[in-house]
Amino acid sequence: MVNTTRRGFLGCGVAALPFLAFPALTRAASDARSDARSDARFGVLPGAGACPPDFHSVSMALTGHEDLDEALVPRVWVALLARHPEFPARYRLLAEAMRQRGIHRSQDYAASGLRAEKALHEVSVEIVAAWYLGRVGPMLPRAEAGTPAFITYEGAMMWRPTSDVTVLPTYARGGPGFWAQPPLSLETD
User: Fold this and answer.
1) Cα–Cα dist 105/136, whole Å
2) Mean pLDDT for the stretch of residues 112-127
3) Is 32 exposed, middle or buried (0-12, 13-18, 19+ CB in 10 A)?
């Protein structure tokens, strides 16, 4: 029987740390190189350029909501950029057209005639869809490649119209196993 002391056990553990850390460090470096685009979910896309300062106000004008979450603004921008690399140039054309026509509200946009300009209208629809759906790109069944760029789930504007009666679907609405108990009443559930 081997008599092991706590000091000997800890000494072996400390001696083994460099060998245990080396694979993790190389794996982290490899992941950083191969998955640089995943930083888009945090509002950073290497070489992408910063979110324009007027993107928040343009988004508010297009959606008709002045309470858009400022924390989501760079995420929306990066998601649009990740899906459409030419988006900044197209956005600049839309923003300039809106500025020239004095569009500051969704009603102004509707009355401006910009809907008739297909290229500009497509950009505005992409921006509004990103805010309402919380993602950029189509949902494909069983897709591992070409999945949409995720922005937010709970903050998606699609939940707003029914927020007083709709529980946002999550994994456990009422806690673990909530479905096993019958509802208290049909009137409250």
Assistant:
1) 23
2) 94
3) exposed
Closest CA to 93 of 72, 73, 57, 119: 119
Q: Residue written as tokens 């990103």?
A: 130
Going from the C-alpha of 167 to that of each of 118, 160, 176, 183, 189, the distances in angstroms are: 37, 11, 16, 15, 11
Closest CA to 121 of 97, 105, 139, 99: 97
Torsion of CA 116, 119, 123, 125, to 10 degrees: 40
- Contact between 151 and 72 (Cβ < 8 Å): yes
Nearest to 118 by CA among 100, 93, 146: 93
Backbone angles phi, psi at 135, to 5 degrees: -155, 165
Instruction: Give tens-digit pLDDT for 29-82.
Output: 444 433 434 444 444 444 456 899 999 999 999 999 999 999 999 999 999 999
